[in-house]
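User: Sequence recovery, please. Input:
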């Protein structure tokens, strides 16, 4: 009950504070297993993307997050495990030889959809989008039945800029694009560039 009430409070607050609008430009909100991949400029990115999904999709859509940050005892652990049902990955590679994608593959095999940020870290540069890490490619190769849907998050870094305790009143939009279709025989670099361009194409001119 507490987790459900917390989830409701978070989704309501996220929409109220950011004025978030979900724009389904190339795909529709339907219960298809997907890997939503987005640009990453704020700690609030996955919260807003998750909150922008219809309730029936949120139940089976899990954000991917770093275990080193979220598994510390207290509120963070409660939120990521009980509210968001996140998929935690070991970014520090403590276990030698462990597959860093295994937790995500297990979640996909269980029928869940995922939210990931292929830049690998928050983009605090002047570039609109950092180069993608290889994880997106390997997930697409190993689970080709899962749709890859790009999502551009616009203005969240301006709504919640670093160092401010209170958000600024600025409209935030999430643009959901068309799924990136697999191409047989496509190499890693070509795939990552194509996926990156599909995401950049959703960015507004001022982003």
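Assistant: Recovered sequence (207 residues):
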């Amino acid at each position: 009950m507490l987790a459900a009430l917390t989830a409701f409070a978070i989704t309501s607050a996220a929409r109220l504070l950011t004025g978030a609008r979900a724009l389904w430009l190339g795909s529709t909100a339907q219960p298809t297993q997907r890997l939503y991949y987005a640009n990453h400029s704020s700690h609030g990115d996955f919260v807003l993307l998750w909150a922008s999904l219809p309730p029936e999709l949120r139940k089976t859509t899990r954000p991917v997050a770093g275990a080193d940050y979220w598994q510390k005892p207290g509120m963070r652990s409660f939120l990521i495990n009980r509210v968001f049902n996140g998929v935690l990955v070991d970014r520090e590679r403590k276990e030698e030889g462990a597959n860093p994608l295994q937790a995500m593959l297990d979640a996909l095999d269980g029928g869940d959809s995922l939210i990931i940020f292929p830049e690998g870290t928050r983009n605090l540069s002047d570039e609109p989008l950092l180069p993608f890490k290889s994880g997106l490619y390997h997930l697409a190769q190993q689970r080709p039945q899962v749709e890859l849907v790009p999502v551009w998050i616009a203005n969240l870094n301006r709504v919640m800029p670093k160092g401010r305790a209170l958000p600024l009143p600025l409209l935030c939009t999430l643009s959901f694009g068309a799924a990136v279709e697999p191409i047989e025989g496509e190499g890693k670099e070509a795939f990552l560039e194509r996926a990156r361009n599909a995401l950049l194409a959703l960015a507004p001119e001022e982003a």
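Residues 158-169 have pLDDT under 50 and may be disordered.
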